[in-house]
Amino acid sequence: MTSSGMAELDHERIPLPAVVRPLVSCGPVLVAVLALLTGLAGLSCRRAPHFRRGDAAAVVVVQRSRVAVGEPPVTEREPNNTPGEAHELVWAGIPPAAAVKGMIGRMEAGKSADVDVFKVVVPGPRLSSDAGQAADLFAFAKRLSVVINPEAGLALALELLDETERVVKIVTAEPGEAVGLPNMAVLPGHSYYLRVRAASAPATKGRGMPDAGALAGSSYQMTVLLLDFEVADEREPNDRLESAGDLSWQGGSALAAGLHGWHRDEDWYRLSLDVMGPGWVLNLDLEGVEGVAAGLAVNDSAGRKIVAVRGRKGERLVLRNIVPPSAAADAGAAGAAGRWWYLVVRAESGLDRERRYVLHAEAAPPESQGVFEIEPNDDAAHASSLADGTTTGYLPVGDVDVFRYLASEPRQLDIEVTPPSRVRVRVEVIRARDGQVLAEMVAAKPRQAVRILGLSCPVEPILIRLSQGKHDGSASEPYLLKLASRLAQRDAGRRE
């Protein structure tokens, strides 16, 4: 929000569902929404409405015009240190907005630190679940977006409280850094409180105590917008298993769009596995957001991590051929209600309150995806089966892939691994029963192929372990593992 009460709502990413036609039968309102999204898609030169391997760009970038969002900022009204004394914000403009200038007062001897509390009343009729008006009230939620820009040197903490004064979310920022809650779900007819205070002083690590008066008297400006959620938008808070939002299948695809709204922001999505046929696998793509290094994890129905991947800033993340448990094997929290996994998107570093990431999920038979590693396969107990031919996989930062091979008779193996850029691959051939290393090769530079030729293979299980150099990794570019075997001959084990 500028001092004139104008906000720029442009270059927002709006997710385009990958399966429009199956939704048409859901009702005229949804049809109208989808028709609008389809019309907006015509404004973009970048469009991929269907999930495909290697294409994570199922978003439509829409140029939005600048719109007036209310009157110029008002000055906070003191005292407003408690919800009972809260300064109530007045909505104005389209979309409804409010702006206020505040100040964190000086901390004097014997006086508690200044806290500013603002009351937000969401317009609209209050829905009652008791009256059967809504089985899930948050399906009717509005999107509350709050951004506070502080004066240089002021580090702020922002808290959202519900009308019972229960803390819904707390976020903090470094001195001079904007702090915000860009997509909180709030209910029409309900009241909420925004509490602004100085953030706790960071550790000084031997540099002496910070000046207690350095932040005193510093000002800030807060902008509050009330928006509608787009189709497939995440709804905060969703930072743990208990508050995970449901990710719904439409055919064999599902998607969600969210924001890396603050440092270390974590978004949890609950995904039903009941639609997946026997032997099917789950494939995931997370589109990168420039300036944000993201992580993507898959947790089981009890919240235990199954597999995870991390990337560099702006890097697209992929997870392929993840094998779900059978209905009998999944004894987690979902129980008889169904099989569930949780997909977790995390901002490892950086944030972006405007540009959405898009998370795609696809259920598919493994044969339709070619020969791929089966995740998780980070250790011997979860090793993927390997046969002659070419297998594809990914080695993101910190990942290890283990394959298991069993020869029915003495044979010689030729193993070749072609890694992607940014990966110096390490290949180890290990005897499974005792962990003895039979052969080992390390690439001298990224993208260099590694070959182990004519290796004598015993008639017992061996493990082929792929790893990488420190800080190496590629979450979006696959490696190729080629294996060829022949009857054993003498003078085996030559390496390149």
Question: How would you describe the overall organization of this protein?
Answer:
This protein is mostly beta strands and 496 residues long. It has three domains: 6-65 and 232-368, Jelly Rolls (Sandwich), CATH 2.60.120; 70-203 and 216-227, Jelly Rolls (Sandwich), CATH 2.60.120.380; 376-487, Jelly Rolls (Sandwich), CATH 2.60.120.380. The protein is built from one helix and 32 strands. The protein has one helix at residues 28-41; strands at 6-7, 12-15, 59-62, 67-68, 74-75, 87-88, 97-103, 115-121, 142-150, 156-161, 167-172, 179-186, 191-198, 219-227, 245-247, 253-260, 266-272, 281-286, 293-299, 305-313, 317-322, 340-349, 352-364, 384-385, 389-395, 401-405, 411-418, 425-431, 437-442, 450-457, 462-468, 474-487. Strand 28 and strand 29 (437-442) form a beta hairpin. The termini are far apart. The model is unreliable at 1-68, 131-135, 203-216 and 330-337 (pLDDT under 50).
Summarize it.
The protein has 496 residues and is an all-beta fold. It has one helix at residues 28-41; strands spanning 6-7, 12-15, 59-62, 67-68, 74-75, 87-88, 97-103, 115-121, 142-150, 156-161, 167-172, 179-186, 191-198, 219-227, 245-247, 253-260, 266-272, 281-286, 293-299, 305-313, 317-322, 340-349, 352-364, 384-385, 389-395, 401-405, 411-418, 425-431, 437-442, 450-457, 462-468, 474-487.
